[in-house]
Design brief:
single chain, 134 residues, alpha/beta, tt1808, chain A, three-stranded mixed β-sheet, 9 strands, globular
Length: 134
């Protein structure tokens, strides 16, 4: 692949990419590849997942690698709470979850993802900065 030219990727093209380790997301036509999470990242995600499972309808709480197709993109929050009647097709959730949790990886850009979440109907997005403890 020639890296000197930048081309935008459609969801159809994105969906055909081979499986890899780590997490792929598609934001505004750009493929974002994140490495597998470090233990601290996974521990935080697990704690939030357990918190939601203890307090919310378990059928609406989803762990990492549950993807949402929105605005011709694809986002996989670390933890999410789907809407009671979350739109879906035969393969994927459609539109933003009601609540998304994003745990930042070093150097991760979050602004574009936040815009997509809220434009597509998310009520809350929790952004956790594990290195900043916030």
């Amino acid at each position: 692949m020639d890296m000197s030219t930048t081309s935008l990727t459609t969801f159809g093209e994105f969906e055909l990419l081979p499986e890899i380790d780590g997490k792929w997301e598609l934001v505004k036509g750009e493929i974002i590849l994140m490495p597998s999470p470090e233990l601290a990242h996974s521990w935080i995600a697990k704690q939030i997942l357990l918190l939601f499972l203890a307090r919310l309808d378990k059928t609406r709480v989803w762990p990492d690698h549950t993807g949402y197709r929105l605005a011709d993109g694809w986002i996989e929050p670390e933890v999410s709470v789907a809407w009671p009647a979350q739109r879906r097709d035969e393969k994927y959730f459609l539109g933003s979850p009601m609540i998304a949790v994003e745990i930042l990886s070093p150097g991760e850009e979050i602004d574009s993802k936040l815009t997509l979440y809220f434009l597509d109907g998310a009520v809350e997005v929790w952004v956790v900065g594990p290195n900043e403890r916030q």
